[in-house]
Specification:
By secondary structure, this protein is an alpha+beta fold. The protein is built from three helices and nine strands. Strands 3, 4, 5, 6, 7, 8 and 9 form a seven-stranded mixed sheet that branches. A two-stranded antiparallel ribbon has the order 1-2. The protein starts with a strand and ends in a 7-residue tail after the last helix.
Length: about 180
C-alpha cells in the first residue's frame, strides 16, 4: 500500500496521508515529481509507458511518479529515476526547474538532469516502462502534450516557462527561482 502526504493549494502540509488509488479529497493535493533528462547535444530522453499501464499505455513520457509519505521531492525523483530506468543519480545532480501547482489533484516538481548514456543502458521496470529513446529538444517540444507523448507541464503558461528554463539549463544555468 502506497501512502502520500497531502497538501493544501499553497503546498502547506495537511498533516495527513492518503492511500494511492483512492480519490484525493477535494481541496487536497499530493506531490509528484518528473525529471527531464537531457544530453549535451540538446536531446531529451523519453521512456515509453508499458502497454499494461491504465493511463496512456504506449505513450512516451519523462520519468517521474508520486512522492511517498515522509519523502522529500528530491528523494522521490532520485528513487523514481532508479526504479524506472536503473539510473543512479546523486541528489545534487538534479536541478529543480519548475513547480506546477494545483494540477488536477497534485502539485508537480519538474527537475532536469544531464546524462550522456545510450537508451540501451536503461533498465526498464516491468509494468512501468518498456523502451527509451533520445529525441531532439525541438521535436519533443513540438509534440509534448499531444497524442502519444506526455508533457511534464500541463498548463500552457507552465509549459512555455519550462521550455525557457530548459534552454537556460542547457546553457549552464542551475538555479531557478
Amino acid at each position: 500500500m502506497e501512502l502520500w502526504d497531502l497538501y493544501d493549494k499553497d503546498r502547506r502540509p495537511l498533516g495527513r496521508t492518503h492511500q494511492r488509488g483512492l480519490p484525493v479529497p477535494p481541496g487536497a493535493y499530493h506531490l509528484a515529481v518528473i525529471v527531464v533528462i537531457l544530453n549535451p547535444k540538446g536531446e531529451v530522453l523519453l521512456t515509453r509507458r508499458a502497454p499494461e499501464k491504465d493511463a496512456c499505455p504506449g505513450w512516451w513520457e519523462n520519468t517521474g511518479g508520486s512522492v511517498l509519505a515522509g519523502e522529500t521531492s528530491l528523494e522521490a525523483i532520485t528513487r523514481e529515476l532508479r526504479e524506472e530506468t536503473g539510473l543512479a543519480a546523486r541528489p545534487e545532480e538534479f536541478t529543480l526547474l519548475l513547480r506546477e501547482d494545483c494540477r488536477t489533484d497534485a502539485h508537480f516538481d519538474i527537475y532536469a538532469l544531464t546524462w550522456e548514456g545510450a537508451p540501451e543502458d536503461i533498465r526498464f521496470q516491468a509494468g512501468e516502462t518498456d523502451a527509451a529513446r533520445w529525441v531532439p529538444l525541438a521535436d519533443w517540444e513540438a509534440v509534448a502534450g499531444t497524442e502519444g507523448t506526455l508533457c511534464p507541464a500541463r498548463k500552457e503558461a507552465y509549459k512555455q516557462e519550462l521550455y525557457r528554463r530548459i534552454a537556460l539549463y542547457l546553457q549552464g544555468q542551475r538555479e531557478f527561482s
